[in-house]
């Protein structure tokens, strides 16, 4: 509903468009030209950086990463900005191009799922620094060096009242009912057969099992990655109290909570 509402709002604009002709179609085309112009400008700027590194003899001793924080609609679904796009690859799938001839093969491609939280632990490892115990990401070094083992089985995009989870084939988007007056709204896309996410399968009876599976995986991910704050002492198997082991940010990491769960000591919360 919010996607349809957004497009309808854009199509109804008249005086809000800055340039003539002040129509949706003309505005959409101007927006697309500006988007492509920005791509060209960034591409040119990357070339300037490479040129400066080459002139200083630093090209082979520098890790170059080309990426962005999120995408932007350039007319997909009739929308001309980033929102509302939590459920689309156009927004959540971003470029991630790495160059370091000493470690990474030229022209290599990797189709595994990664998240931007994986960037920091990757750089820490590549630079030979000590691991960051409070970082929720995973190092991508093995993938960058040509390894094929998956780093993650899902990638998640979060918003306060909506979450999107994507695996190798499917994307599921969860919305809280309060967002739509109690209405059950969701999205499910088969990215193999529908890469532009044009056919929402969420309401199809034949895909209810897949919806439930992806919802369960999202719930599991949210619990697994939750970093709880510890305020009360725990009780061990002998009835003795103890202080929880916490990371540097004062929170209990997943490794610690998993260990407590394995020991049956989950009452510490």
Detailed description of the structure:
With 269 residues, the protein is an alpha+beta fold. The protein has 7 helices and 10 strands. A 4-stranded antiparallel beta sheet has the order 3-4-5-6, with helices on one face. The protein has a two-stranded antiparallel sheet with strand order 1-2. Strand 4 and strand 5 form a beta hairpin. The longest helix has 32 residues, at 24-55. 11% of the residues are buried. The model has no long low-confidence stretch (mean pLDDT 87).
Structural class per helix/strand content? alpha+beta
State the end-to-end CA separation.
39 Å
Task: Tell me the fraction of residues in β-strands, as a range.
Answer: 5-15%
Total beta strands: 10
Q: What Rg, in angstroms, do the CA atoms define?
A: 23 Å
Helix count from the secondary structure assignment: 7
The residue-averaged pLDDT reads 87
Form type = globular
| Strand and helix order | HHEHEHHEEEEHEEEEH
Instruction: Please state how the strands of the largest beta sheet are arranged side by side.
Output: 3-4-5-6
Unreliable parts? none
What composes the largest sheet?
4 strands, antiparallel
What proportion of the residues is helical, as a percent range? Answer: 25-40%
């Amino acid at each position: 509903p919010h996607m349809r509402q957004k497009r309808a709002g854009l199509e109804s604009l008249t005086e809000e468009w800055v340039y003539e002709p002040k129509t949706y179609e003309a505005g959409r085309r101007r927006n697309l030209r500006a988007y492509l112009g920005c791509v060209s400008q960034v591409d040119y700027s990357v070339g300037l950086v490479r040129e400066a590194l080459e002139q200083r003899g630093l090209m082979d001793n520098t890790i170059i990463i080309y990426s962005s924080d999120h995408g932007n609609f350039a007319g997909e679904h009739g929308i001309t900005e980033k929102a509302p796009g939590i459920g689309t690859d156009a927004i959540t799938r971003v470029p991630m191009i790495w160059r370091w001839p000493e470690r990474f093969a030229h022209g290599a491609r990797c189709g595994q799922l990664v998240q931007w939280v994986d960037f920091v632990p990757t750089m820490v490892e590549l630079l030979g620094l000590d691991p960051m115990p409070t970082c929720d990401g995973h190092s991508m070094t093995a993938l960058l060096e040509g390894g094929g083992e998956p780093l993650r089985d899902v990638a998640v995009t979060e918003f306060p009242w909506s979450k999107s989870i994507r695996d190798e084939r499917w994307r599921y988007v969860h919305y809280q009912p309060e967002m739509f007056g109690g209405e059950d709204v969701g999205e499910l896309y088969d990215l193999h057969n529908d890469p532009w996410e044009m056919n929402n399968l969420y309401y199809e009876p034949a895909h209810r099992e897949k919806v439930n599976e992806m919802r369960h995986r999202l719930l599991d991910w949210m619990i697994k990655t939750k970093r709880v704050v510890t305020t009360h002492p725990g009780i061990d198997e002998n009835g003795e109290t103890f202080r929880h082991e916490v990371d540097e940010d004062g929170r209990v990491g997943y490794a610690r909570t998993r260990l407590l769960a394995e020991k049956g000591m989950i009452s510490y919360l």
